[in-house]
Specification:
It comes from Bradyrhizobium barranii subsp. barranii. The chain is an all-alpha fold. 74% of the residues lie in helices and 0% in strands.
Length: 39
Amino acid sequence: MGEIRKHFNRDLRDKILGELTKDFSQRPLEDIAALIADA
């Protein structure tokens, strides 16, 4: 994923970040921390 990310244009990157924000906004902080740690 890191290699692919280098090739994203700014608009695509912003859309992906927006989707991640929606996915994580309703989760408890502990769940978010666990998901990040497992990534």
